[in-house]
Design goal:
By secondary structure, the chain is an alpha+beta fold. The protein has helices at 16-79, 102-121, 130-133, 159-172, 178-182, 196-206, 242-251; strands at residues 83-87, 136-139, 153-156, 189-192, 211-217, 220-225, 233-234. 51% of the residues lie in helices and 13% in strands. Helix 2 (102-121) packs across helix 4 (159-172). The longest helix has 64 residues, at 16-79. The termini are far apart.
């Protein structure tokens, strides 16, 4: 006799009792196999339920983490609401060379001409002295031997003067000296002081071929896509990817 879970063969010369016995044995085997299958199916269903539950928990936690990150970034950006960054200004950090304080150099070289124009345009009432203008002024990092670009300078002033500087910088930014240009400096740049996530996304969007230009307004990113559509788009979250941001912008046409 040969038996399996799917096929039952009884020899032709078997007696009735032998046939019954073989049939009962075969049915018992099938029942045991089915019992094992039922147990396995129960375990699989249980595991599937646990996986689904874990996925739901992970999604909920991901949303909570995202919300916490968004709130922390918003608070960080708010703390930078009276801060700007200056790029491109070379300043000697040799204290023994008799160099002027960093704030005085920044004031005379860059900020005073801009604030003078801002006073003329009515964007600020006066041009304060350097001692009264700065709440803080310091360089971020140290100059690199392999880079011609000096490290940025963090400048903290009142919100009125910050807004006046940002509003009047484009037309009134003084140029580098001839020697600075010869050393490879093209221009000075003043921008809002963005949080690390916002700054990272800004750089990524500026380097993306699908984006024509990107900038920030009060810490919030704005951009224009390449092509015929020149409407200004808003970045909803600095934690979104560039692909997601561009795709959403194209769909919103």
């Amino acid at each position: 006799m040969a038996k399996s879970a799917n096929k039952f063969i009884v020899p032709a010369n078997s007696s009735l009792e032998e046939k019954i016995d073989l049939a009962l044995t075969w049915l018992s085997t099938i029942a045991m196999q089915q019992s094992k299958i039922d147990v396995l199916e129960t375990k699989v269903i249980d595991l599937e339920g646990r996986v689904t539950s874990q996925e739901t928990t992970i999604k909920a936690l991901s949303k909570e983490v995202r919300a916490v990150k968004e709130a922390a970034n918003a608070r960080d950006q708010e703390a930078r609401s009276n801060t700007i960054r200056l790029f491109g200004l070379p300043v000697s950090q040799d204290k023994d060379s008799g160099a002027k304080p960093l704030s005085e150099i920044v004031y005379n070289r860059v900020l005073k001409p801009i604030l003078t124009a801002a006073r003329t345009s009515g964007d600020c009432p006066t041009v304060p002295h350097a001692a009264n203008l700065f709440e803080d002024c310091y360089r971020v990092g140290k100059p690199s031997a392999n880079s011609k670009t000096p490290p940025p300078i963090i400048i903290k002033v009142s919100r009125i003067h910050r807004l006046a500087i940002l509003k009047n910088k484009r037309l009134n930014m003084p140029p580098p000296t001839d020697s600075e240009k010869a050393a490879g400096l093209k221009r000075f740049v003043i921008v809002e002081d963005l949080t690390p996530p916002a700054h990272k996304l800004l750089k990524e969007m500026q380097e993306d071929s699908r984006v024509e230009k990107t900038w920030s307004v009060d810490g919030r990113l704005r951009f224009v896509l390449c092509g015929e559509d020149k409407t200004v788009k808003k970045v909803k979250s600095v934690f979104d990817s560039v692909d997601d941001i561009v795709s959403a912008a194209k769909k919103s046409k």
